[in-house]
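We give this protein:

***
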Amino acid sequence: MKQGLSLRASQHLALTPQLQQSIRLLQLSTLELSQEVEQMLDENPFLEMSEDRAEREDFGLEQSDTPVSSGDSEFEFAAGSSDFSSTTASTSTADTDGDATPLSADDAPDWEGDGSHDMTPDDSEWGADAKARSNNLNGDDDKDATELARTHESLQAFLHRQALGLRLSQSGSAALRFLIESLNDDGYLEDTLETLALTLHTDDEEAFQDLVHHFTVALGLLQSLEPVGVGARNLGECLRLQIAAILKGLAQNSDAYEVMQVALRICAQPMELLARRDIKRLVQLGVGSDELVRLAIARIARLEPKPGRKFADVERNIVVPDVLVVPLSNTQKTAQPKFRVMLNPDVMPRLKVHDIYANVLRNHRGGKDAANHAALQQRLQEARWFIKNIQQRFDTILRVSTAIVERQKSFFIHGALAMRPLVLREIADELGLHESTISRVTTAKYMATPFGTFELKYFFGSGLGTESGGNASSTAVRALIKQFIIAESAKKPLSDNQISEMLKEQGIECARRTVAKYREGLKIAPASLRKAL
């Protein structure tokens, strides 16, 4: 076997730990970022949260037009790769694929940087440029939605408070309390009484039957509490409880009493008949006459199918915007309105490096503890990079949001009907970023506008052809379909085909199937279910 030397050329790209962290932070939502910050605060002693205001590095709108740095270029090139799970990626010719040298899995992460970003000894706080305030843009309300949610009474608490007024034995009170705690968010009792009794782990058959009896009595008491319909096992029972409560307040010889009696019989039938408004089938089943069935269905539609709806925990559904868009005061009435785009200070973590720990490490050069000193130095550098990467995350979100506002300025003036077609590639080319980066920025990030709070992806939509040769945004078409349906006659609702023809009259080519898809996306029922009885 003959030995020899050869020279081969290959390309090698390594995703450094700080680059991987930057990519990962960019795609996190506000809640996930908060959890990441909390975890990093627990793990890294050199990182701390500060409530004091301090100067931070300049970035944002002032820096949005600056050329892309070499570090950003490296980030964009890496972000455009299809696989981010591996720590290395290499491209070479066919005969040199096996000669690329990836990073070893045993190598410790190197937080010293790759030279693309300058590290300065100034570790001042980032993210404290504004005082936390309410998310309401007008600033008129003293409490935000979160504070109101905390003072909102839950369904269980409301029922427990009513149960205090009942004179029950100790066992009866315990059974009622157990059933209340077993309700779901809608106020339904999903499990059977036998299943609930089995969860208490009783092997004695007599004790089991006694427990089921206590639950049966407690269920009757539960269903007598407010809101009416609570404690039902299914939708039909929920509606029947509400109808029974209404019947108690009606005279038996009145027309309304007869209608509610028919409604009670309708709710005893399979719910599919009511959902389809199958009047003919209900009349055939002997529920009532055609006219009475129509009146009863209309009355049932006014009942509450989810008694616990108003007690829902609204705090879980709160969307905290990452970006705020505020219209500026226009002194010249003829000038085009302008908008200010800014980050929401409520979602920006106030992080800084622990000065005392950093100074102690800087003054202690190691000596016999050189290995420990190197490990601590690495943790310090990791804290600095974490702050830098969070700053870069919010900077990118602001740049993308500003570009979106510029492209969709008509939306912020006139609403969804003025939305124009926009794809990720347009924003990526304008900002010099990769398209995958724009996708990460616009996912689970929200913008508060004068027309409501929307995900950044909401402002992107494909285009539909028009007679003039231009394009209409699919978002604008959805808004137009919704407007048509709102203005329709309740007795003669518009079919999908009629809506398609109306769009053609507006110069928008939209097939019936596309109209049906957009209507379903808007959660609007078909014409047969929208028709008034």
Notes: The first strand starts at residue 11 and ends at 14. Residues 155-222 form one domain. Strands lie at 11-14, 47-49, 88-91, 323-327, 339-343, 351-353, 446-449, 452-455, 463-465, 471-473. Residues 370-407 form the longest helix (38 residues).
